[in-house]
Design brief:
The chain has a domain of 248 residues: 3-Layer(aba) Sandwich (Rossmann fold). The longest helix is centred in the middle third of the chain and has 20 residues. It is built from 22 helices and 15 strands. It is an alpha/beta fold and 495 residues long. The strands form 4 sheets. A 6-stranded mixed sheet has the order 3-4-14-9-10-13, with helices on both faces. 54% of the residues are buried.
Length: 495
């Protein structure tokens, strides 16, 4: 089946997967979505006999139909290699009746590695397929994890450069250190004096700036994105939700065809949307439990049908979820409107103009499998401590949000279906908050002292990603106002 891609906002032209990956964002500002949804051509039983790379191939080949088998397998083999500290790539751990899908065993100890390890290979392969000679400039906003994972993926990749913007005071100390110590002559990291939404809005503006694009073209550059708005980021995430089901089946935890739930700590909506896509291609997921922190814009949306970003932005200890504009929700709005680009476009215009929109009752009925939940910082830290005391298993703050929300969901609904919780980051990445949770008092020691003790408590060796940044020099120290973002990009590229 030949899968093409279209914009969520009505641009009539259709694109191949490789063209959509290269472009990142549609010219009308929309996101690329498949024009039709493929179906898995292997049974769950067959997939349960495969390893991660094989399941990834069987999933991605459906969506990336203009890639040859050799091209796609080469991308997969280059991505899921010794960069991961476990051969399983995404191991599953059972604790207190839930199954934690550990997505943090890659180079930067966060789930973004699962997609950003393969995106550079998909992108450079796509450039060759389309005879593109321009140097690809990856322009990305990050709330903490995407930035480092993208930097690690694209550093020193020929024919690419990468610029990452992050909120200067809105990421953890470890997240910031990982980014500002990044090596690679083709990399640039810039802090902004604003929040993630400001960074993301600034990046989107540059994508839509015709004058900037023209100036770049004259110098042989073209923009693309490594954010989850890029379909080349989203589809590799679908693979691990297929894999999760097959592991439960292989281990005899479920029977073939049995429905399971997924619990996902959610900010930009890409991770949970990937699980929804897994269901569309044939994996028996029942509920998608969308876990928010105190920036509970998605919780309120699923409760009321109104998306309202006009609220106070809260800085929390789960910073990758500190988001009020969930970009990937646009794809879900498009699908729930019956793939109606005109309707979706009107909602997005309303969001841009008024900061709020309300979907129809018919659209709400298409979202019945989504369940919203949220946790305060106190509830999150309390659950991390509770789980540790019961089992010795240590969660990071984002997974802690999901675990608390899931526990509350089960108590309120009695839904005892087998459930997978997406464990999105290593606790070492948020060691201060995690250790404060375990001890019940704020830990004010040096970050690396805390990490040493956390390693002992969790009985887990310190990840290589942490060891590397202990003595690494700071290579990026630029901080700018949001209105200076374009100027910084031009300076870096000499445009």
């Amino acid at each position: 089946m030949d899968i093409k891609y279209q914009s969520t906002r009505g641009q009539k032209e259709q694109y191949t997967a490789s063209q959509a990956i290269l472009q990142g964002l549609a010219e009308d500002g929309g996101l690329f979505v498949p024009t039709s949804m493929p179906k898995l051509d292997k049974t769950m039983a067959e997939l349960s006999q495969m390893d991660y790379k094989q399941v990834a191939y069987e999933t991605m080949k459906l969506f990336f139909s203009d890639f040859t088998e050799d091209e796609l397998k080469n991308c997969i083999n280059n991505a899921y290699d010794s960069k991961f500290d476990t051969e399983e790539i995404a191991p599953m751990v059972e604790a207190c009746g839930a199954y934690y899908l550990e997505l943090f065993h890659g180079a930067t100890i966060a789930f973004k590695d699962m997609a950003l390890s393969i995106l550079p290979h998909l992108m450079t392969t796509s450039a060759k397929k389309n005879n593109r000679k321009e140097e690809i400039v990856i322009l990305t906003a990050t709330s903490g994890d995407t930035g480092k994972a993208a930097l690690a993926g694209f550093a020193e990749v020929p024919g690419t450069r990468i610029v990452v913007f992050y909120p200067k005071n809105g990421v953890s100390a470890i997240q910031e250190r990982q980014m500002v110590t990044q090596k690679g002559a083709n990399t640039k990291v810039i802090g902004i004096t604003g929040n993630f939404d400001d960074a993301q809005t600034g990046v989107k503006k540059m994508f839509g700036n015709a004058e900037l694009k023209a100036d770049l073209a004259k110098k042989g550059f073209v923009f693309s994105s490594a954010n989850s708005i890029n379909i080349g980021r989203l589809i590799p995430q679908v693979a691990y939700y297929v894999y999760a089901y097959t592991r439960l089946l292989a281990n005899g935890r479920i029977s073939d065809g049995e429905e399971i739930n997924a619990v996902v700590p959610t900010g930009n909506f890409g991770n949970i949307l990937a699980c929804y896509y897994a269901k569309q291609i044939g994996v028996p997921y029942a509920k998608f439990i969308c876990a928010s922190n105190e920036n509970r814009v998605l919780y309120d949306f699923f409760k009321t049908g109104t998306y309202d970003r006009r609220r106070e932005f809260v800085l929390t200890n789960s910073p990758s979820m500190d988001i009020l504009i969930s970009s990937n929700l646009e794809r879900m709005i498009f699908h729930s409107a019956g793939n109606n680009a005109e309707a979706n476009s009107a909602f997005m215009a309303q969001l841009s103009k008024d900061g709020v929109y309300t979907i129809t009752d018919e659209m709400k009925s298409k979202l019945v499998n989504f369940v919203g939940g949220y946790a305060t910082q106190e509830e999150t830290l309390g659950y991390i401590r509770e789980l540790y005391e019961k089992t010795g298993y240590v969660l990071d703050t984002h997974t802690g949000v999901a675990a608390y929300v899931y526990d509350k969901y089960v108590k309120e609904t009695g839904d005892k279906k087998v459930s997978v919780i997406a464990s999105t980051a290593s606790p070492f990445k948020f060691s201060r908050a995690v250790m404060s949770a375990i001890k019940g008092v704020e830990d004010t020691r040096d970050d690396f002292e805390i990490i040493d003790e956390l390693s002992e408590l969790a009985k887990v060796a310190e990840p290589k990603a942490i060891t590397e940044i202990r003595t690494a020099p700071v290579l990026h120290d630029t901080v700018c106002e949001t209105e200076e973002m374009e100027q910084q990009v031009r300076a870096f590229l000499g445009v």
